Amino acid sequence: MTDSPPDLMCRDLTKDFDTFRAVDHVSFDVPQGSFFSILGPSGCGKTTLLRMIAGFQTPSAGDLQIKGKSMIGVPPNKRPVSMVFQHLALFPTMNIGDNVGFGLRQRGVSKSDIKSRVDRVLDRVGLPGVTDRRVDQLSGGQKQRVAIARCMVLEPDVLLLDEPLGALDLKLREHMKVELKSLQAAFNTTFVYITHDQSEALVMSDNIAVMNNGTFEQIGTPHEVYHSPNTAFVAGFVGDANIITATVTARDGNTLALTTQTGGTLSLETHDASLNAGQETQVFLRPEVIELIQPGSAPEDAVNVSEGIIESVLFNGANSMVTVTDRNGAHMKVALPQTGSSTAVQKGDAVLTRWHPTQAQCFAMAQD
Predict the structure, then answer these.
(1) Domains of the chain by range and CATH?
(2) C-alpha gyration radius of the chain
(3) What CA–CA distance (Å, rounded) separates 53 from 225?
(4) What average pLDDT does this structure show over 78-83?
(5) Taking the alpha carbons of 161, 167, 97, 109 in that order, is the dihedral positive or negative?
(6) Are 285 and 356 in contact (CB under 8 A)?
C-alpha cells in the first residue's frame, strides 16, 4: 500500500516577468491537513507563488500538483483550492448567508443543500444564527470567520490565505492567530498561509518556508527556523537578534574564538566546517539567551562575560528589553522576563552580561 500524495506539491516552480525572476525554482510539499506558512519580506515572491497555486498566474517553468494531479493549464475555477484575501472581499449588499453560499450558487447547488451546508459551516466557525445579518453588523474577527466559512463550504483540498490578518488591529490579530489554528485543526484542511509577520508564522504553522529573493532559504518547523537557522538571512529575519560583526582568530574542533569590530572577544560552538581563522563573520545572538549578572558575582568560567552599563530599559508587560553598552562601546539587547531580582535594574546600573557558547549562530560574511 503506497502513501497518499501530499495535498500540494511544487517542483522547480519558476515565474519570470520580462527580465525579473519573481519565483526561482521553488520546490516543496505540503502534507494533508497541515498548516504551512510562507514567510518573507515584501517583494520576496510569496504572493506570486500563492497566485500560481491559485491559478491566477501561469508558471514559466516547473510543475504544481494538488492531490497528485498537475494543475498546469487548469483554470482557477477548476482547481480544488479556495483563497482568503487580506481585505476579505465580502459582498456588502449580501447578507452573511448569501455571502457564504455564493460559491455554491455558482456551482448550481440546490437551495435546500446550500442552506444546510451554509448553516453547518457557520456553526463550525462559531457563528450560528447569523445568516440574515448584514456584513456591517459583524466585528472584524467575525468577518474573518465568515470569509473562512465562505471558502470552507466549498470543501477545498487546499485553502490559500494571503496575509488575512494584516488589516486587523493588534489585539484582534493576536486573537485570530489562535482562532485560525483552531479552525484549521477542526476542518483538517491543508492551509497555505503567506505573511511577512514572523509571529503569525511561528504561532500557527506546522512548517514554515522562509522566502527571500524568489527562493526558499529554509523549510522547517517553527522551532527549527528560530533556533537552528540555515542562513544569515533566516537568523536575522525570524525573531529578534543582536548582530555582531567579528573575525575568527582561532578554531579548536568546533570551538571558534572571535574578535569583534569593537575589540571584544567571543567564544562559540559551531558545526560549520567552513569557518576558519581569518574569516569575517556575522554572529547572531538572541536577546533572551543573554543573562544579566551583578558585578562581583561573576562565575570562575568567564567565557562570554562582559562588563557594561545599562543604557535603557523598555518595559513591555511580561518582558523588558534592556540595552547594555559594554566598555568598548558595543550595544547589546537583553530580554528580561518580569521575574526574579533582575527586574529591579535601572538605567545607569553597572552589570555583567553572559551567554553560553552554544547559544549563538555564526555565518560567513556575505561577499559583495
Answers:
(1) 8-236 (3.40.50.300), 240-364 (2.40.50.140)
(2) 25
(3) 24
(4) 91
(5) negative
(6) no
Beta-sheet strand order (sheet of 291-293): 291-293, 350-354, 305-316, 319-326, 331-337
Is the pLDDT at 134 greater than 50, yes or no? Answer: yes
Predicted pLDDT of residue 1:
39
Give pLDDT, residue 11.
Answer: 96
Which whole-number Å values give the CA distances from 193 to 65, 204, 228, in the listed order?
Answer: 17, 9, 22
Strands 61-66 and 158-162, bridge-based pairing: unpaired
Least confident of 46-55, 169-178, 186-195, 280-289: 169-178
Inter-axis angle of helices 111-124 and 140-152, nearest 10: 130
In angstroms, rounded to a whole number, what is the distance separating the alpha carbons of residues 182 and 26? 29
- Each residue's pLDDT tens digit, 195-212: 999 989 999 999 999 999
β-sheet bridge partners, residue 316: 319
Q: Residue 313: which of 301, 321, 305 has the closest Cα?
A: 321
The C-alpha cell 540555515 sits at 230
Q: Which residues, 6+ apart, have CB-to-CB distance to 368 below 8 Å?
A: none
Question: Which residues, in sequence order, are CB contacts of 335 under 8 Å at separation 6+?
Answer: 240, 286, 287, 288, 290, 319, 320, 321, 322
Euclidean distance between CA atoms 35 and 255, whole angstroms:
37
